[in-house]
Amino acid sequence: MVALDPRTNAFRPEIAAKHLQGQVEAARFVEGTRHRVNEPVAAMRRAPSHEARLDTQALLGETVTVYETNEEGWAWGQLEADGYVGWLSANALAPSGAAPTHKVAVPRTLVFPGPDIKLPPVTALPMGARLTIARQDERFAVDAAGWHVPSVHLAPLKARQPDFVAVAERFLNAPYLWGGKTSLGLDCSGLVQVALQAAGVSCPRDSDMQELALGTVSSLAQLRRGDLMFWKGHVAVARDPETLIHANAHHMMVASEPVADAVARIKAAGGEVTSVKRLVSSS
Predict the structure, then answer these.
(1) In this structure, are residues 102 and 76 in contact, taking their beta carbons and an 8 Å threshold?
(2) How does pLDDT run across 7-27, given as a tens digit for each residue?
(3) How far is Cα of residue 205 from the mean position of the Cα atoms in its chain?
(4) Statement: residue 1 has pLDDT above 60
(5) Fewer Cβ neighbours under 10 Å: the N or C end of the chain?
């Protein structure tokens, strides 16, 4: 059998997705049921424990196919958007209902219980969160639960930002968080994924997957805005031929710095640039 990546293929010795039957070994194969994330942000972890490593985050309105729910209230499933597999709290999931119509198009927005910005917000939503909007007035979009979201902070689900680098730049100084995908914390590949998805570009979750899947090979000598720079375990986005932006553990935040400085620092730590990839849709 061909070895499949367990990050994006739902299989364990005990259980696996039905469509993988014949490709992997497992005690049983199941079809899975579709659910929708019903919390602003849901942690997807490596194991069914709040202490387990954070691999990624699922955002409100995302679809998850659940293959198993254990007695401790953890659901093992796969995200529809990028195929990532992991464990989420079952409390963060609800049956699939009406399809989302809009998404949050700013790094973070507040949700109000009524049409008044002086009311205490009920929650905050990250960029990429999806909502099913029932009606809109001059200032607010309202979902079926009565959540009022500033209309100016939303965009139709299929809307595309023209420049994904400009989206990434909106996260400057956001803290670094391994596995994070929001303005409260994100990692290098999370920043790239969130920015590209806002521009309508499908993007895998981890940097090694992104290096394999995205763009065509270019070079540092020809670097231009929108190029992706890869090292083993790291990715950055070129703002221009001399400057890049990346979420990184050196600064512990999303930072912009000269390309030469980043290349030299990472090389001193034992890391060489493994590739530069150019996206056809980059500005």
Answers:
(1) no
(2) 999 999 999 999 999 999 999
(3) 7
(4) no
(5) N
- Structure-token pair, residue 1: 């059998």
CA–CA separation, 115 vs 141, rounded Å? 9
Whether the model pTM is above 0.90: yes
State the alpha helices, DSSP H only, in 162-249.
164-169, 188-198, 207-213
Output the six-digit token pair for 25: 């070994």
> Using CA atoms, how far apart are residues 142 and 22, in angstroms rounded to an integer?
46
The per-residue DSSP string of 143-179 comes to: ETT--EEEGGGEEETT---S-HHHHHHTTTTPBB-TT
CB 64 within 8 A of CB 34: yes
- Region 57-66 average pLDDT: 98
CB 66 within 8 A of CB 27: no
Rounded to an integer, what is the distance from CA 163 to the centroid of its chain? 17
